[in-house]
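Everyone, study these two lines:
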Amino acid sequence: MLAALFGSTSWADEKGGAARVPLLPKYREECAACHISYPPGMLPAASWQRIMATLPRHYGTDASLDPATVSALAGWLSANASTSGRRSEPPPEDRITRSAWFVREHREVSPAIWKLPGVKSASNCAACHTQADQGDFNERNVRYPR
């Protein structure tokens, strides 16, 4: 029964590392309509709970969903959130791009890259991570747009 709920996979935290978890189709449908389906292991549960509780003011956009959908997505995000290691601390404003681990991982990216028309912001993971839509952020798959 649960297998029918899952679509593709994404990364979640597992003992400080990352493990693939199936993406809920509803998560992909609702969240990926505006941005990639960020893997739940990129943030701790507390961050996901705040994000889901403030969808009417979702980073400057009204991303409201019906209560049943919010409950299902919030439960899944919290269950698959980061629980240990470098991703377990809530970042400022619950923004993945402001987390210490994200800043550390991207410290070698030139400021000029972030300004490219095909990138525009650090939250546009798919601009450089060619497999981001599949939850794969491996450096082997990074290609900077021209």
About this structure: Residues 35 and 60 are 14 Å apart (CA to CA). The beta strands are 9-14, 17-22.
